Amino acid sequence: MEDLSGSRADHLIPERTLGESFGFACGVALIAVFAALGPIDAGAETPDLSGAWHVLVHYKDAASADADRERWDDRAWVFERQGDRLRWTEYPIVVLDDETGRFENEGSNRAARIPGHWEPDAGQLADIQDGLAVNERGVASVTLRRSGQSWVSGPEQAISSASMVRYLESWRVDSAAEGPIFRREDALRSERAEDLAGTTNYTTRAIADGGRQLRGDFERDGTQRGEFIMTRAAGVHGYGD
Hints:
Layout: E1 3-5, H1 18-25, E2 51-61, E3 71-82, E4 85-91, E5 93-95, E6 103-107, E7 110-113, H2 122-130, E8 132-135, E9 140-147, E10 150-152, E11 166-174, E12 181-189, E13 196-208, E14 213-220, E15 224-233, E16 236-238
Parallel strand pairs: 8-16
Antiparallel strand pairs: 1-7, 2-15, 3-4, 4-9, 5-8, 6-7, 9-10, 10-11, 11-12, 12-13, 13-14, 14-15
């Protein structure tokens, strides 16, 4: 069971292995499907992404020591139109009024993520839809430009020194028949060392509830696989506001 410590907001930050930390920094997120969130709209049009979304993850990690362990993660995404650009912001820590089924107290100001596949109950779902409380620790934001039917981030910067190690990210949203595909590519690059790179795909398979939910497949590097669901929220606000 993952151990958490610190203030109540910090309780929501799981400890991670070195490999998991790299994936976390690169925006790894794996998200779940649960039928209770409403029927799928056959032939629904691709929704306007502008606004806030709760992104929930159910997944397994074939590269871990416990490959059959069910895992979950969640975060908030916000898309904002800025002229002819689209800004994509990720908040990796979401705080709910009721953390039942998500985290449990272990005493001494400590909490732990509950293993398995957490799914929101009716009250938690209403809390999500009414607006997401977020901790801004670890927030990342990228501005995307239009390229054909896709939104893409700017070009990678060249490595200017053989001794320099550079962290690079590429974010994009592609249009597809079943709905948008969200792709995150990240890399640590150096002229003197082998590159470390990862790719995370969120492939929409169905659009539900009049475009207010997106469901699909999650995959990172061929080892972490699962399902995701994005649920539209009224907005985001800081924890405690």
